[in-house]
Amino acid sequence: MPLVPMRQMLDEAAKGGYGVGAFNVNNMEQIQAIMEAAKATKSPVVIQASRGARKYSNDKFLYHLMLAAAELYPEIPMALHLDHGNSFETCKSAIELGFTSVMIDGSLADDGKTPSTFEYNVEVTKKVVDFAHERGVSVEGEIGTLGGIEDGHGAGGTGLEHLTDPEQAVEFVQKTGVDALAVAIGTSHGAYKFTSKPTEEVLKISLIAEIHKRLPTTHLVMHGSSSVPKELQDVVNQFGGKLKPTWGVPVEEIQNGIKHGVRKINVDTDSRLAITGAIRKVFAETPEKFDPRDYLKPAREAMQKVVAERMTQFGQAGHAGDYKAMSLEEMRGYYKRGSGCGGGGCCGCGSKKK
After folding, report:
1. How is the chain split into domains, by residue range?
2. Over 50: is that where the pLDDT of 232 sits?
3. Confidence of residue 194 (pLDDT cuts 50, 70, 90)
4. Does the active-site annotation cover 234?
5. Which is catalytic among the residues 83, 179, 268, 270?
6. Residue 158 has pLDDT above 70, yes or no
7. Overall fold of domain 6-326
8. What's the rounded Cα separation, in Å, for the pair 225 and 51?
9. Which of 3, 19, 175, 292 is the most buried (most CB within 10 A)?
10. Are 4 and 20 in contact (CB under 8 A)?
């Protein structure tokens, strides 16, 4: 199965009432872990790369690893997504490489750190949408800003400084025609999201419900949604790590979000913790080992276990064979006919233009 547009994947998730995990990658072992988890659970999946990952692995290596995954797992629908594109140029380069979906984070300026204006966000997002849809590529935008910093991207803070305004979200979708909308509800990038189990004062799941009421057919996205399980932290610390106590987003809260229109859930930190814990364990218990395969194999297995668990929890398990994947050319025709924001009201903006 070729790489597929994320829009189709999220449309199908909406029909089925489930969410799709979007897992960040930097190397071959992470892609292998995700694909083995998808195969075991029969799940569609979004594999995403940040600007930092693209720089680390090199675009060509990354893209051809994804082509290999598509060849080896033809039964699994997968989208290749750019996570937190900081500019039109960044998104354009990913699209031209072969990414089937991009995120333009216009909530921040092109430095990836400074909160921008609503007007700037609309302008840059619309420019990306027009370019992407002409090529059948899906686009995710963002309203509000997340806390924390990861891969050099983020506004810092706690995540409560710039929450998504529901009315502004509606206007943003109407003016840009995005396929998916990332919302800021108090989550943060990285491992250190919360200093205690999050309450409704710091994790505004109710805000998702309010936005979903106003945009019932817009695909919502939860960023910074690793659960940072204590057992993964404990393995890292047991074998020489020094992680401070921290809490992530409880799985039950993510599941609550899925009930209110969340269709894409970004997970990165949980994978990193699983990998790091497994590698530390090998080094601590068998310090004579030096073959990278001796520690990368258990690292890959540890990440696969976490990813498979999230796929089951998000509800995507069992849905890989539900539909025939569209090509980018077919998706281009979908956009050209006026589906999405241009007409039919599918994107949730209420537009009926033809």
Report:
1. 6-326
2. yes
3. confident
4. no
5. 83
6. no
7. TIM Barrel (3.20.20)
8. 19
9. 19
10. no
